Amino acid sequence: MPDPIPMLDLLNAIPRELILPPANLFLLIALGLLVWRRRPRAGRIIAGTGLALLALLSTTAVADWFVTPLERMTTALQAPERSGAQAIVVLAAGQLRNAPEYGGRDIPDTTALARLRYAAHLQRRTGLPVLVSGGIAGDRGGSDPGYSFGDTMASALREDFGVPVKWIEGQSRDTAQNAAYSAALLQAGGVHRVLLVTTAMHMARSRAAFERAGLEVVEAPTMFFSGQAQGVRSWVPSAEGMRRSWYAMYELIGLAWYRVRAGGKQAGAAQGVMRR
Fold first, then answer.
1. Are 161 and 118 contacting, i.e. CB atoms less than 8 angstroms apart?
2. Does residue 265 surpass a pLDDT of 70?
3. Which of 32, 229, 236, 267 satisfies CB 3.0 to 4.6 Å to 60 for a cystine?
């Protein structure tokens, strides 16, 4: 039986933009238009389906169908002072590159700022030390090859929120590496239980990754969107509707991917044992 891990790595090399809306729907519409010449009826069905899905997924009402299952996997944190946590871990999101108002520095984007704001709120309530975790921004086109997402977050916490940062994890490239590298820093300092700060839709995948890395996790989600889509306006296509659909589908696929990959590693380990 072939080792499943290389096959999974090959699938992972497919750009995520191509398998998520709206790009995948534009590809579907393009396919329908190509088919239209030889098979008009089939072409109309394919292109029409892509166009209908594009419109529906651009509404916050339909996006809510995908957002809600993810956000129901977590709950808002109550009484963080009594959580028993030893540190706060806040995960990176995106960044704005070469921000002119900050002298050309890279700065956290709106999603990252929401996470930082909640982390600052929790730090003031608990007095716990903070770890920021984010990958190497320079490899993704940042203004400074040595300036990581973690560095941009640490600067924002210190300069904009007045919150000290004890650890900066700046090597990770995905959530699994966020967990692995953060766990190494924290466990070296005797920390085993953390408040994990990320967006509500990202929490289920993040929690699983940090628990696999050997940490006890107290969930501290922020930015809940489910239940906000109400009234006629929620059925009007918008950029916000598509953004929520994109993010929710990304997280749902990510959850499935982590489970498949974990299963693949277990299968690979079992094969190794059998070969011995």
1. no
2. no
3. 229
